[in-house]
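<goal> How does this chain fold?
<sample>
Here is the protein in question

***
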Amino acid sequence: MSYGIPSAEPSADIPVCPRHPDRPSYVRCQRCGRPACPECQRAAAVGFQCVDCVNEQKRATPAYRSAYGGALAVGKPWVTYLIIALCVLVYVLQWVVPGDAVYQQFAFANVLAEREPWRMLTAAFLHSQSFLLHIVLNMYTLWIFGQALEPLLGRVRYLVVYLLSAIGGSVGFLLLTPDYPPVGVVGASGAIFGLFGAMLVVQRQRGGDTRQLWVLIAINGAIGFFIQGIAWQAHLGGLITGGLAAAAIAYAPRGKNQTFLQVGGLVLVAALLAIVTWFRVNAG
């Protein structure tokens, strides 16, 4: 003979969770007033809300966008911090990995453009081991301009501008430097000059004063002509590329097609870099 105790079914007088009718619930949603079991409760400013009301609020809340269509980058400039952290990590590896292997595998030189084109990007994450200020000044400048540009453009657009500018710096070096003797180039300077160009375009589009930016660009650009070992060619390539990429973002008409036009403009900038590189490699 079995003496098992049967499970009690909720009666009509006991409130139950609409999503789980077999579960009695004496906690009610502060928004709709329906009962909600512990699994369906979500903490609110006062009391709890049910999961259905929370999801409905999320759908009804508009997604806030920056002036250029990107998701509003509130808080810390995480993309900028990520780039800085990656550059610092690679710099540590340059010291730790024996045989100068990191430099040999990822630095860019014109003679490598055809068979190892990825170096045109990876070189932007390496820095000179013989000149500590190289990485220090680059990262400080990146931190300053990243805090201003990342919230304006949105994180994804900002990252694309930075990466295109890094490649553009290598393309500038490829175009304006002889292939022989082979010269390696490393550093984030081309990408940072791209941020200079991007800030210049954004400031102009917003109607801001650009005189101080022009002075900054002129001073930093002139340094490359007077100090040996600085690749002014990469600076110029990055500056132009960053300006073009930012123009594709900033001057795209607002509306439902804004993102489509921006993506199209950025693809055109990338295609231009690829075409110029192809012609230079095959003409050389």
Notes: The chain has ten helices and two strands. The two ends are 96 Å apart (CA to CA). The longest helix spans residues 258-283.
